């Protein structure tokens, strides 16, 4: 009952403190945070929101305002949607306060937009990733046969979670950019149509309206769909403006599709795919040339990436890396960070005499270590106390350096970072790969715990 009342109070107050429903242009949530884009930032009362029971912290990431709730975020989100009707809004208002352009703001907007398109799809990625882990463990232990009907069905369902990513992105990107959701999903679907895939595989030349279509494999792709839906959102506004109202319901969908077919196949899809390939190649170049040191640097930066929202923008790299190489060398750094956030919180819990802080720290540590959800520990304890956060960077570097030097890879997308349940995702690389992953996490955990434990001093108010 206490939790219900807490969420009721939070859901009742938070919308008013961000300037009411009319000030919100986009509203979603991820695993631990409410994410809002608003017209006027000055209407957001950050200090009052942070005082609400159940709110761990708040932050601005570009133009997106994030309220850290923890694992109860979906309950809070549903309550807010029920009371305000925000979930029923499919379009985004254009009446947004204009700001001068800067490179920093431009990059921030790119990451914010990518995150807004990907965050709603995290449950799919986590869910099918864990299904793959269960199947892999079952097959390794002899409990599940690879040829059994159930194994075959579950396997292709799990594969579908990533194969049809362009379609899923079509739906989420349409909400972010204000495009028609049906047309947006169609643009994603045409990139993975069996005929197109077959012609690409056979090397059959393709063209549309006299324009050459560059062959490419866009299954699992993220950037092509996001770019295509962004362009579609602009095209639809032009078509709606110049099409007579009586013909709009027919002409706008028709010309949207006809115009976007050559634009998407001939220009956007190859460009989007190249962005993914280049990003993947850069990160892989760092790994190949700097080995364990490159993985260590990545792990050291992981908390900062989470803080800025850039960690979500790395998902396209992950998908591209799996498609190109079949594994990810840097995911061990994310797993180590999750454990280390828990290690730092646990050290604080053991040293502090504040009962409230001790309780919160133990809860946050448990969530990070077991479930791999690090935000409560990071925002609620480590970042708030500052020094533990800085020491985690050192612990991440130490642990990931071990994992990088031992060439620890993860072979299942979406399942290599989920706390204690992540280790089976490393099984495909052999028993040594799992043991090295455990060793790297233990080294990072112990280093972080000791650093925080012996440096933490209770503040005297």
UniProtKB/TrEMBL annotation:
PROSITE patterns assigned: PTS_EIIB_TYPE_1 (PS51098), PTS_EIIB_TYPE_1_CYS (PS01035), PTS_EIIC_TYPE_1 (PS51103)
Domain PTS EIIB type-1: 8-90
Entries under CDD domains matching the protein: PTS_IIB_glc
Molecular function GO labels: kinase activity; protein-N(PI)-phosphohistidine-sugar phosphotransferase activity; protein-phosphocysteine-trehalose phosphotransferase system transporter activity
Pfam families given in the database record: PTS_EIIB, PTS_EIIC
GO terms, biological process: phosphoenolpyruvate-dependent sugar phosphotransferase system; trehalose transport
Residue ranges of every copy of the PTS EIIC type-1 domain listed in the record: 112-461
Transmembrane segments: 110-138, 150-170, 177-197, 217-235, 247-271, 277-301, 389-414, 434-456
InterPro entries: Glu_permease_IIB, PTrfase_EIIB_Cys, PTS_EIIC, PTS_EIIC_1, PTS_IIB_1, PTS_Sugar-Specific_Components
Catalytic residues of the enzyme: 30 (phosphocysteine intermediate)
UniProt membrane topology term: Multi-pass membrane protein
Domain of life, source organism: Bacteria
GO CC term, one of those recorded: plasma membrane
UniProt keyword list: Cell membrane, Kinase, Membrane, Phosphotransferase system, Sugar transport, Transferase, Transmembrane, Transmembrane helix, Transport
Position of the signal peptide: none
Localisation per UniProt entry: Cell membrane
Cross-referenced SUPFAM superfamilies: Glucose permease domain IIB
PANTHER family: PHOSPHOTRANSFERASE SYSTEM TRANSPORT PROTEIN, PTS SYSTEM ARBUTIN-, CELLOBIOSE-, AND SALICIN-SPECIFIC EIIBC COMPONENT-RELATED
Protein name: PTS system beta-glucoside-specific EIIBCA component
Organism phylogeny: Bacteria, Bacillati, Bacillota, Clostridia, Eubacteriales
